[in-house]
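Input.
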Amino acid sequence: MKPAPFQYLVPKNLDECLQFLYQHPEDAKILAGGQSLIPTMNFRMAQPMYLVDINNLQELSYIRADKSGGLQIGALSRHYQVEHDALIAQKAPLLHDVMPWIGHVQIRTRGTIGGSLVHSDPAAELPAVMVALNAKFKVKNKKKERWIPAEQFFVSLFTTALEHNEVLVEIAIPPMPAHAGSSFQEFSRRKGDFALVGVACLLVLGKSNVCDQARLVYLGVGEGPIMASQACKTLIGKQLTPDLLQQAAKIAAQNDLTPPNDLHASSAYRRHLAEVLGEQALSQALERAEKNV
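Output.
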């Protein structure tokens, strides 16, 4: 299939892009990597009047440390850049670990981190990882900029808190605590397929290896990334043992999640995967955190 007719625009800078979106807030779509947008246009699920190509806006492509020791990532940074960046591996190992799970090499070569987040696919890896990392997103329009915490950014199925005239410009990831460990686990039928279930985990240990912080975020089990809040509460303030991790994973699967039935998997099967993957992620995150104590 072919897309519906549209006008193709290439802004010279971000200000020009924002000016155009201000004039046509509901008729334009941003083209970054195009790995999700172009297929939806070809199927005519999206029919924008204007396609605004931001690939020349190198001001949105960067990976750097901030003064606090965290990370600033430009929204136009390609997946392959994030995957192979030494600073990402050092300061955000969870983000580094998840990148090879995203699609195939060809997709990661072209796709952008901002594009994946804005698309907000419920089976995508990056939204869950950003929630687990407690990231926040800088968005701009012609008149102002604002910061949106990752937990508030993903509203529902393919829907974010972005307004029609706003552009995601930066992802900020806070510094990792000293005694932290992380893990990402996923199950798909074939390498590169969308996950049936996935989970991003971050554990922070305090004195005497007591759990100070736990973040367990699932994908593929709802309309967006799902924080397993009840499971996390069972871990805070306790010494983490294999039995406790197993119990937390079971609570997550049975109490925190309401996975859908669809042609890919039943709700019961997704609950089973959530429990197994949750325990694996918690165990690996704990092992890594103990090495950092």
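The mean pLDDT is 96.
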